[in-house]
């Protein structure tokens, strides 16, 4: 997909970032405690991107550092439910938008 529009490029970047954060959060949950190097290896992301995502997830209260690596908090399950609801709402909005684009 070629993006020439700033709006579409920003949307694509935000969705990609959300996808990375969610995959990382799930990987942390499945392997906790886990460090940056192992996360980077499992996810195939450079360490600087892993650090950034860890910082965001920690700011949101979804993970906490431990001496052995990152671990999830009690907010994990609710966050995953919220993301699921959000994605369902977004899917509906995308379908409405597709219909709008096809109408004369």
UniProtKB/TrEMBL annotation:
Classification via InterPro entries: WH-like_DNA-bd_sf (IPR036388), WH_DNA-bd_sf (IPR036390)
Q: Which SUPFAM superfamilies match?
A: Winged helix' DNA-binding domain
One of its Pfam families is HTH_24
For this entry, the protein name equals Winged helix-turn-helix transcriptional regulator
The organism that produces this protein has a lineage beginning with:
Archaea, Methanobacteriati, Thermoplasmatota, Thermoplasmata, Methanomassiliicoccales
